[in-house]
């Protein structure tokens, strides 16, 4: 929904008129104000406003003010909301390719992930959104999920055998744990701390900022930087709203979105580093040099189950071959 605003008042100056928004785009985010994804879209908004002389504005609504991710994606598809920032995980049921590119151990590092998304493969993925009334504008960093537990350092696949890990209620996550010889225990995020503390589970998996902010580092001091899952974040726009913009304004939005990804990734990297330093200072033991070869090889049955078409197989192969 494009909102036209900015009434011309008697006596206003030219500078004031330039600051009035002719078009206001509403953008949703579930994260709180100040979070890297929110600040990324704010950076995009600032650039768009500057380059359009104040004609086009983006208003960011953080903290799920407009709804949770799946709801706001649907509203964006229908043009009720103009833009949404959401995890690829929330698009799995809408755009199938998002599940393929979010498989375990698909990326060697976060740099590898960025190389994939910023190149031809990223452009291909973006085209798949158009058939679902969405325009993909920017790929943000959602961090890398790694294992942590209360029992011992994990350096090999064998170290995981028989251990109980909390995972999200997601078939890929459950199958990943099974392939590694561990036991998946889906449960609400809020129950993880007490479940580790009382021995109901041995550990969980997430990124450093979540490991820190949740307090899980207090009860599970062994963190293994295996980076088994990297799920991209996406800034998408309603196709209906997009088509109401002039080609010139569309070009401005694309460029600003691309630049905002650089801002967001830097903020995320800073947040990861700060959280890592904090948990290490409080006594967490981080295992960094993990040989992922055996972990990757263990994913064969997972890939066989979820990568079933020739197109998906080719995509996985090209991602793995990206330097």
UniProtKB/TrEMBL annotation:
What Gene3D superfamilies does UniProt report for this protein, alphabetically? Bacterial extracellular solute-binding protein, family 7
Listed InterPro entries = DctP_fam (IPR018389), TRAP_DctP (IPR004682), TRAP_DctP_sf (IPR038404)
Domain of life of the source: Bacteria
The secretion signal range is 1-18
Recorded GO terms, molecular function?
carbohydrate binding
Q: What Pfam families does the entry give?
A: DctP
Example of a GO biological process term:
transmembrane transport
List the keywords (alphabetical).
Periplasm, Signal
Q: Where in the cell is it found?
A: Periplasm
GO cellular component, alphabetical, reads: outer membrane-bounded periplasmic space
* Alphabetized PANTHER family for the sequence: DICARBOXYLATE-BINDING PERIPLASMIC PROTEIN, PTHR33376
This chain belongs to the protein called DctP family TRAP transporter solute-binding subunit
